[in-house]
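fyi for ur records
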Amino acid sequence: MATVKKSIVKNKARIAIVASSFNDFITKELLSACLDELRLKGLKDNHLTAVWVPGAFEIPLTALKLARRKDIDAVICLGAVIRGETYHFEVVANECARGIMEVSLIAGKPVIMGVLTTDTVGQAQARAGGKSGDNKGREAALVALEMIALLERI
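which gave:
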């Protein structure tokens, strides 16, 4: 049985990041950690593209345009959808997630779901660095690099 081992591409990956301006007090933290991690893994700024969109609902279309580019190996999607008083939360969160998955399948490239869907602002802040220091933007960067390497190997 052949086994494909976990590995990470360094230095040569070209990654686009789509970040939602809505709840930017969260997404700025996600983006900062994401970029820090990518740079830590050896990627240079000229291999990174960051694009801001109005909200999470606009992320999939922008991700698709970027994923179709030949000079992009993966797209990381960052946002924060925080539950409010209406059904709007479910619509935006579900359709954003569905759209991101669909873009990945259409493009045949890693399109990483780094959009937080939380019940409270506190939960979103915790996932964007909070007291624990864990940041889902950093995790999204690592997943993108791992998926690039995996797809190159298979």
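The domain at 15-153 is CATH 3.40.50.960 (Rossmann fold). thats all i got for now
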